[in-house]
Amino acid sequence: MIPYEKYHGTGNDFLIVDAREHEVADRAAFAEAACDPDTVGADGVLFLSIEEGEPDRVVMRLFQPDGSTAAMCGNGARCAARWAADRLGVSELVVDTPAGARPTRIGPEAIEIDMGVPSFAPESVPVDSPDPFEDRELGGYTVTAVNTGVPHAVAFVESVDAVDIEADAPPIRHADVFPEGANTNFAEPVDDGYRQRTFERGVEGETRSCGTGAVAIAAVAHRKGETGVNETVSVTPPGGELGVRIDDEGRATLIGPVEFEFDGELPADLAP
User: Fold this and answer.
1) Is the CB of residue 103 less than 8 Å from the CB of residue 94?
2) Does some domain include residue 120?
3) How far apart are CA 9 and CA 235, in angstroms?
4) Are residues 43 and 63 in the same domain?
5) Domain contains 271
6) Closest to 12 measured CA to CA, from 210, 195, 260, 169
7) CATH number of residue 226's parent domain
8) How many Cα atoms occupy the beta-carbon half-sphere of 183 within 13 Å?
9) Is 121 part of a structural domain of the chain?
10) How confident is residue 95, by pLDDT bands cut at 50, 70 and 90?
11) How distant, in Å, are the alpha carbons of 75, 87, 250, 262 from that of 110?
């Protein structure tokens, strides 16, 4: 049997498996089955390996409900940091992801993770465009493309509640202009920041929160001159409130809480 622990970051929930202690031969099949609500239910499975040193590190690999992998997940990385910090007794460590090494600070109420510099370069998103894909009409919305560890499309709307996300997001998520697909975010400006709804690639549905999506919204708003340097912007998905700060070098920091939910065991050969 494979022990797991379930954590969530503002409603974005993950099963965590200690990859040093427990071997899962087919991680994709395991994640696909475990994330099914009839089994446990989650937005992904994090396979984590702690590497003690200077600094301490936790290597994170995310497998999604459809069996695919994602290079980065902001809420998942914060959950990974909390899980590792509790074992190491530290308040700072590095989360190693396929998208890069992410220095992280773990506080009692919130976790702050360096999300790197969001990229609007077409080859980095990637998006099939000779120039940055900004304010383009796509699927009936005005969309900007950005990579915050994974590809994102951001559309600002008058009301996120008025968006039929299950109908409107898939044509953008699967648009030919995105060769690897794109997470699709709808953002509503409010007095203290932005409300957020996200349709996630790999989950193939709306999630209660998306950390890389929150960073994408803040990055596009910052590029438009709507937010200031080092200003912590509130981005609120259905699952809770996140903060995003972009410094004078363009680096983004994601800030938010993490909570442990419960633990359990699953068969190592779990399959869909």
Assistant:
1) yes
2) no
3) 13
4) yes
5) no
6) 210
7) 3.10.310.10
8) 31
9) no
10) very high
11) 12, 17, 22, 19
What tens digit of pLDDT does each residue of 38-74 get? 999 999 999 999 998 889 999 999 999 999 999 999 9
**Of 134, 170, 131, 149, residue with least CA distance to 215:** 149
- Is 180 a residue whose pLDDT tops 90? yes
Query: For residue 185, what pLDDT is reported?
Result: 98
- Is the pTM for the entire model greater than 0.85? yes
Percent of the chain beyond pLDDT 90? 97
Q: Which domain holds residue 251?
A: 136-256
265's tokens = 């065991």
Overall domain count for the chain: 2
d(CA 102, CA 9): 17
Q: Supply the residues annotated as catalytic.
A: 73, 210
Beta bridge partner(s), residue 189: 194
Q: CA dihedral in degrees (208, 213, 214, 220; nearest 10)?
A: -150
Q: Are residues 8 and 63 in the same domain?
A: yes
> What's the pLDDT at 53?
86
- Cα 53 to Cα 269: distance, rounded to the nearest angstrom: 33
Query: Is residue 113, in this structure, part of any structural domain at all?
Result: no
Indicate if 142 and 174 belong to the same structural domain.
yes
pLDDT digit string, tens, across residues 157-179? 999 999 999 999 999 999 999 99
